Amino acid sequence: MPALSAQLFSDAAVGESESEAVQRTALALARSQRTALSHRWIDRFLQQYGLHTAEGVALLTLAEAYLRIPDGATAARLIAEKLSDGNWRSHRGASDSWRVNG
Questions:
Q1: Sequential pLDDT tens for the chain (102 residues)
Q2: How far is residue 74 from each of residues 58, 61, 69, 70, 97, measured CA to CA in Å?
């Protein structure tokens, strides 16, 4: 068995340039897939919670203000206040994306 393992490892060895090419290809594929998935998810999210809804306005307000919040307690109050606006349950199950419905 050890001889077979050694032979398999030897056969599988690739040069540095081949290894780099495989890594570049894998990275490009992963980035492409992430981009494709994120755009679809964001599009669905924006369609579901557009600015024509109270929930969309609450999310936009929260997003704009959140970065300027000085501390955790104030951030928690802002989140609680903004998420209490609107009828969030009316959106449950309205999208085919689990991320949007969550």
A1: 678 888 887 877 788 888 899 899 999 988 888 777 666 777 777 788 888 888 888 888 888 888 888 888 998 988 888 888 777 777 777 777 776 665
A2: 16, 15, 7, 7, 31
